[in-house]
Design brief:
This protein has about 375 residues and is α/β, with parallel strands linked by helices. It has two domains: about 5-165, no CATH class; about 245-365, Roll (CBS-domain). The chain has helices at about 20-35, 45-75, 105-130, 140-165, 170-180, 185-210, 215-240, 245-250, 260-270, 295, 310, 325-335, 355-365, and strands at about 5-10, 15-20, 80-90, 90-95, 255, 275-280, 285-290, 320, 340-345, 350-355. Strands 1-2-3-4 form a four-stranded mixed beta sheet. Strands 5-6-7 form a three-stranded mixed beta sheet. Strands 8-9-10 form a three-stranded mixed beta sheet. Helix 1 (about 20-35) crosses helix 2 (about 45-75) and helix 3 runs antiparallel to helix 5.
Amino acid sequence: MKTSIQIGKVMGIPIKIHISFLLVLVLFPYVFSIDTEFGFADVASAPLRYALALTLTILLFSCVLLHELGHSWVAMRYGIKIRSITLILLGGIAAMDEVPRDPHAEMRISIAGPLVSLTIGVLCYLAYLGLGSHNIVQIPTISYISRFLGSIAYINIALFVFNLIPAFPMDGGRVLRAWYAGRISYLLATRKAVYIGKMFAIAMGVFGLLFASPWLILIAFFIYIGASEEEKYTEMSVTLEGIKVRDLMTREIAYVQDNRSISELLRLMFEKKHLGYPVVDQFTGKIVGIVTFTDIRGVPMSEHGNVLVREVMAKKVSFIPEDADALDALKMMSTENVGQLLVQDNESITGIVSRTDLTRSIEVLGYREQ
């Protein structure tokens, strides 16, 4: 979601559009402009036809936003922070700080979005019937409104049904996981829901190939990858449960002055065997950045003696308390897209923890909940 831009806020939640959403503004209006059932293929004027199709597209994704706001509103009632809602090519994603372990909470949060879609669909259908029951649809403006209502009603009811397919990580899959979690361990519940989700994804992909449907193939790919990532995240969160940052951090920190060359840095890396180092100002001694092996990989070997650390280092430095949970460190690394965190205790630096430290700990500890 790094390639997203914020377009506003609702309920204090940043609303963003992903770069893939630009395809929506081109593809969907085109589809609606040539569709005879839910679109406007019969409108003679091309500018009006595309304007109506674009309006329907915007209305549709406004409904998707309301769907995600439904999830978010219920999640916020449980004290869960929503970092953002992002509209993408295939719908929307509400980025929550955490997924509740309480099966009842996850069930209610998961079902809230589809219920919003169903409510919109039913209300629009009733309004559509109300307009159709009067002999006023011959008026062009009313006719277009009636068509908007009918299309939005159909699409939202279809979204309600589709989202409740028990294919993790879709809403239906999360409802299924919550149902399992009320009966077996959380990790096992996740694995069962993920397995079912992957089976649905494979079946969807096969149907997509048989009937030459790129949309089904794309959705199947999204479900399969999403299910795999959710399983991996759950396994990590269960494994790191109860472990503090102080238990994993490296206490002996090697600092690098910002005026050192890449050659000198590589010698230090070879000696200390770490891939990331805090950078300090050569005059003040204050931390001014972080440099990692990834930062220097693009520097030609012939330039290693000339390029300085300050020229390649990342200037953003992230800090975390040493009594923070290891899982919080993993979340922060993911959210801020960094590989190392400096560890603090009463504002003094006591260590450094890396993504490698966390992944190695997961490998060593194994998945404790079966």
